[in-house]
Write the structure tokens for this entry.
Amino acid sequence: MALMGDLFGKSPIRPMQQHMRASLECAREVLPLFEAMAAGNVSELLPRRDKIDRLEHEADRIKNEIRSQLPKRLMLAIERRDMLEILDFQDSIADVAQDIAELVEIRSMTIPETLVDSMLDLVRRAIAACEAAGRIIDELDKLVETGFRGREVARVEEMIDELSRIESDTDELTERVQRKLFALESELGVGIVFWNQIVGWVSNLADYAERVGNRLRLLIAS
Amino acid sequence: MDASWFGFSPVILIAGGLALYMAWAIGANDVANAMGTSVGSGALTIRHAIIVAGLLEFSGAFLAGGHVTDTVRKGMLDMDLVSREYLLYGMLAALASAATLLLGATRLGLPVSTTHAIVGGIVGFGAVGIGPEAVNWPQVGSIAASWVTSPLLSGCLAFFIFHITSSTILDREKPLEQVRRLGPIFFFYVFFIIGLVTLFKGLKNLNLDLNLPEAIAASTLVGLVGALIGAFFLSRVAKSDRADQSDHRFSQVERVFVVLQILTACAVAFAHGSNDVANAIGPLAAIATALQEGGELAHKAPVAPWMLAVGGAGIVVGLATWGYRVMETVGKKITELTPSRGFAAELAAATTIVLASRMGIPVSTTHTLVGAVLGVGLARGIGALDMRVVGNIAISWVATLPIAAALSVFFFYFFKGLLT
């Protein structure tokens, strides 16, 4: 008859934060990967990719755990559907990082010299977006603490605004890289297709980070 | 009924044994639910919870257990229609059926309320053994209705208390400063409630009768003393201001709520003792009255303090022999509850139970507390609540009454055959 005990389900808030941290780790690893590519250090690509793979598996594990612990009978502080959507966006960050590492490693890509600076700028800014999303998800427990009201909500909304600004930056940076990239069309040949793919994916990192924020914005506005 | 054993009639021995078992079961199961939130949020260790619960359950039962006991004893049946013998068999049957039901439910792990079981038992023998006209249906109806309204009320209260603590403390620039400023008000309220319930009804047992304004004045005094103690305590706990800026800006505040939550847990234990002791002692008191030759069946004869003491002691023994294990289980499962929401839930539940026992209505403490927790959950203050448990409660609620009633009818004829 330990009724009160049974009433409490396992809260998914902390696992959500763990998952975001794992995804963020994946995204962070993209920078050293690109630095190796910029330095022309091809032999370093495989260990970098392996590391991202491991981190992505960890994110997957947490994701599956959260999913299996969200039966419909739970009444959640954040609705089940919203929670799963945010989880998907978080997970996409890890997935995209993995896709980038995979393609880069398989094709042993190194960054053409004229692209290096703008490319690394883009990567840094995209990771900054993921970091911002991570900080926002870190606030989830405090949102629950205050019952999704007042000052804490305003605080998180500001953080989401900041995330949006970072994401807009990555849009500009993406365009800049693309302009430089397309100037290299004759030089890179068919390789330009893959480069375009990579640039798109890096920019996606920021997009998914922004979607995490935007989904949360809808949720705390209601 | 000539047989006697060391001067005690066998009937009172059987009844006393069953009542003790009921009290034991209440202590073993229900108290853990009442105190579990404090253990789960880390406000109290299990050892401390047992000590606090034991003390307050006993004083609640002894000082303030009379009102509800009277209702259980005579409020649900029309005593003019109940003969002395039938009252004996019936109350024995109610105790036996509730005890059987509790044993079975505990083995099957079902959430059965002792309150519902004993009320079902009394209605059962009354309606079938004596006749439907013997049952005071409006009273029974209002008791049954209170089983819906009490969780609802405590849920609403918890919802608002959580919002109040949220908006006045947690949702402030400097929550720590805020809790230092407003904390005494919460202390006041908690002490006021405890004072009110004690003075209001409890002191009757000690032949100290206060009227309403006097009781309120005295409770206000108790509350003010509590606020002073609280202010002193807060000035010691909440020193550091840097905490407001840090990432863990709520953890300092939660430390203040730990104190408040312990206080409200005390209030819940007290209220629980005063409300639930009746489940064990009410029928026993009725039997004892009926056994007194020439005793006034219906109206006078108050519940003897020694009976309340026996009930309180039974609860404490149940707590000490078995309750700590249940509390351990409950505490381990409730780890997501922070002290501020534990405080909201417990304050709401305590207020509701105190109100109910003031009106002499036996409510289920556990269900009231579940309602309060749901209220905080609806305010989006708890990560995850298992709604299936709420469904189980509704089912067991509906099932307990007829089962207890049927068992009680069976035992009624059993005791009737045995004792005549």
